[in-house]
Amino acid sequence: MDRFLLLNTFRRVVELDGFAAAARDLGLSNASVSKHVAQLESHLGVALLVRTTRRLSLTDAGRDYYRNAVHILDTLTEADDQAGLAGVAPRGRIRMTAPMSLGLADLTDRLVDFREQYPEITLDVLLDDRQVDLVEHGLDLAIRGAGPLADSSLRGRRLTPMDRWLVASPRYLESRGTPTSPDQLTDHACLAYSHAAVPDVWRFSRDGAEVEVGFNGPMRISNSIAIVTALVRGQGIALVPAFLAERELAAGQLVRVLDRWESEPRSLHVLYPGHREHSARVRALIDFLVATYRERPLGRD
User: Fold this and answer.
1) 282 burial level (CB within 10 Å; 0-12, 13-18, 19+)
2) What is the pTM of this model?
């Protein structure tokens, strides 16, 4: 029994949420993947997965075993990197997550540049605005835009500032008027980013004064690019990452509102589990990301 094969098959079934997806990823048949998981369960004497017609879920024993399996497989891979591949370019798979809007508007081009430098590294990129648990989902790193880090289990490196601007279309402002102070936003159609920690509250500062504005807007949207689209169509005012609105601002489709007020500071970070040693490939990607955002910050060609 090839324990490494069984462990890796089980891991990919969990991470890809199904036998068919894992089979495609591993280049195996569906029957082989199912057989490998069954062999592992038989060897352990416990059920690892609950299979229904609609979904696949981990048992309590399976959840604990998955975490241990990830640690074992990553440790073996790292040992291979250090012992067998010394002096050789990094290789292997990196699993990462990033916000959808960042991936579409900026990150993918940088990852292609990275792949051109490191062709032996493959990337599994989950574009999702939700903040997923890195350890539970078997991810090596995440890129997130946030304030101070709240999750003590994660470590990170700051990549670049991420300005956010309050913007609206000229058509909207002509019909509803232009607010001259944050408190006037309560009289406007404010669009919320639904994955924010507190979606319906914005905070601003100016000359040492801080203002908090709560609102009950007409739309909550889970993607910032979609919010920009709604703004161009005259649906309201929103606080969006500046790099996502630069093109529309240059074209006159959007204009800044309350530009003398600053929103809460945000930065783009690359985050990774604090307890895990980096493989050479993960170190290479982290260093690349730090360098590329230093040379070319968000929104600057």
Assistant:
1) buried
2) 0.71
